[in-house]
Amino acid sequence: MPLLISGLSAIADKYDALLCDVWGVLHNGREAYPGVAEALSNFQAKGGHVLLLSNAPRPSDALPQMFERLGIPHDAYNGILTSGDATCTYLASKTLGEACYYIGPDRDLNLFEGTGVARVGEAEGEFVLVTGPFDDETEGPEDYRAQFEKLVARKLPLICANPDIVVERGDKHIYCAGALAALYEKLGGEVVYFGKPHRPIYEVARHRLAEIAGAPVADARILAVGDGPMTDIMGANDAGIDALFITGGIAAADCGPKPEAPEGPRVSAVLARAGVTAVGAMPRLVW
Q1: 92, 112 in Cβ contact below 8 A?
Q2: CA geometry: angle 134, 136, 141, nearest 5 deg
Q3: What share of the chain is helix, strand, coil (3-state, %, to 5)?
Q4: What are the residues facing 262 on neighbouring strands?
Q5: What is the 3-state secondary structure (H, E, C) of 160-200?
Q6: 136: Cβ contacts below 8 Å, ≥ 6 apart
Q7: What's the average model confidence in pLDDT over 274-282?
Q8: What CA–CA distance (Å, rounded) separates 200 from 203?
Q9: What are the structural domains, with CATH classification, of the chain?
Q10: Which of 9, 25, 272, 60 is nearest to 168 (CA)?
């Protein structure tokens, strides 16, 4: 059973760096959770470094302004790395071609900037890029089944720029690109994933932390913080990094009837179902 703790301060001295998830940990898509900025700032004050590691399917330079608006100041973290950053690099490599059929909201179109890849219609695409449903407020994977069957029949590879299945927006859950990619794979399609829990993003994160800290940070001194058992916690386990499970995010309902008071056995069951382990668990990220 993971150690249920009341604040990050209980284990902070064991670590020199945080790889901190964003959606579901720092904010819910509408506003920052109480105490998160203070928790990050206090970790920095003791000499720690904070790299925000997000499955946001957009370049990281688009996020600080949004964070500021939600109540997370620039000085609460040292850097940001997104699955969108990794996706941009891959697009620019032209590995899958130069003509892309895009599925996702308009807010993520800046992924194409500077890549040299053209956004084309479905019939002209050499590959597919998915950042989420076109309308994530109303659509889910099944809305794309018929279209995906045709794309799979053409053997078009699909890039998933956000492996998350669902994410919080206010008090509701919305589908992410990972949910669509899972259906594409189930139908027999090839999917290339960028972001947690896949290893490449952690290699980049290590390099970024070394740049921030001025020297490499040992894996044993890095703590991953996240609310997604299948993404944040699984990715940390696979990378050999300790994980702190935030129970009040997407798994809140499974961790007990009171989101602010997770029940140890239920938290353990959630992690066991995902086949992952965590060094600690807490309802929200606070100091």
Answers
A1: no
A2: 80
A3: 40, 20, 40
A4: none
A5: ECCCCCEEEECCEEEECHHHHHHHHHHCCCCEEECCCCCHH
A6: 105, 169, 174, 175, 176
A7: 98
A8: 5
A9: 3-84+197-282 (3.40.50.1000), 94-193 (3.40.50.1000)
A10: 25
pLDDT, tens digit, for every residue of 33-76?
999 999 999 999 999 999 999 999 999 998 999 999 999 999 99
CB half-sphere exposure, 264, CA atoms < 13 A: 8
pLDDT 10s digits, 190-203: 999 999 999 989 99
Residue 160 is predicted with a pLDDT of: 97
Owner of token pair 């008090």: 171
Task: Show the tokens assigned to 73.
Answer: 């100041």
Strand ranges inside the chain, DSSP E: 3-4, 17-20, 49-54, 79-82, 99-103, 118-120, 127-130, 158-160, 166-169, 172-175, 191-193, 222-226, 242-246, 280-282
**Confidence band, pLDDT 50/70/90 cuts, at residue 167:** confident
Asked if residue 118 has pLDDT above 70, the reply is: yes
Q: Please state the φ and ψ torsions of residue 128, each to the nearest 5 degrees.
A: -120, 140
